[in-house]
Amino acid sequence: MLNVRDLHQYYGGSHILRGVSLEARPGEVTALLGRNGVGKTTLLRCLMGLVPARAGSIEWSGRSLDGLPPHARVARGLGFVPQGREIFPRLTVEENLKVGAARKKSDAIPASLYELFPVLKSMKGRRGGDLSGGQQQQLAIGRALMGEPALLILDEPTEGIQPSIIEEIGRVVVRLAKEQGLAVLLVEQYYDFAKRIADRYAVMSRGSVIASGPAAEMDAKDVRALIAV
In this structure, how many other beta carbons lie within 10 angstroms of the beta carbon of residue 16? Predict the structure, then answer.
């Protein structure tokens, strides 16, 4: 289980994360919701070791991640799909996927990955920059899965993507949690998508988690109002 306790982070004089505590459990999708600028992406960057936390602790599977560089966290089982996808536009789909296996002895692409995202198989020779936004998002998720993570962290995977691809990504995320037992931490602003696939939710505001609980309670707790602009 991912266990974040009392995490603090600053940018200059700005207190960005204010005592954030959060859990993400294997076999479940945890949706982290909030308006722009509340600290969601900063939290994910702290989880991956891309920026250091000023105070607090991060544990995965009972082991501390504090002070570890990003590659060591990947080796511990974390996979990260950043906002904006950040695929390599000049590399082919197949080459992009193999980048995700850099820490493994083999970069062979498993048939199960192409089964999750059939479009990647049909376009494996195309350059990543020639794919649509939705196809690039599937490629970014596939690249993260090549590292065989046990915790998959997704930063706004529905941003700028057509509805049909959003539905497909949602189905894949649920399969990864339910069938493969991954813990999934999903940062999202699209309330309906989050509610549809999440098992649990947390809402951030001004750098703090202000509400959390089972996804079945999201409507009753009026979570939509908490993240409305």
Answer: 21
Kindly give the pairing relationship between strand 208-214 and strand 200-205: antiparallel
- Which pairing describes strands 200-205 and 55-60: parallel, antiparallel, or unpaired? unpaired
The string of pLDDT tens digits covering residues 19-52 is 999 999 999 999 999 999 999 999 999 999 999 9
Length of the chain, please? 229
Backbone angles phi, psi at 115, to 5 degrees: -70, -35
Region 130-149: mean pLDDT is 96
**Helix (H) or strand (E) run with residue 151 in it:** strand 151-155
Q: Is the pLDDT of residue 229 over 70?
A: no
- The Cα-based distances of 92 to 6, 16, 82, 95, 97 in angstroms read 41, 37, 19, 5, 9
Query: 193-222 burial string, b = 16+ CB within 10 Å, else e?
Result: bbbebbbbbbbbbebebebbeebeebeeee
Cα–Cα dist 227/229, whole Å: 6
200-205 and 29-33: which strand pairing? Answer: parallel
pTM: 0.94
CA dihedral 30→132→45→221, nearest 10 degrees, is -30
The C-alpha atoms of residue 152 and residue 94 are separated, in whole angstroms, by: 21
Provide the angle, in degrees to the nearest 10, between the axes of the packed helices 133-145 and 163-178. Answer: 10
Does domain 2-86+149-227 sit in CATH 3.40.50.720? no
pLDDT over threshold 80, residue 186 = yes
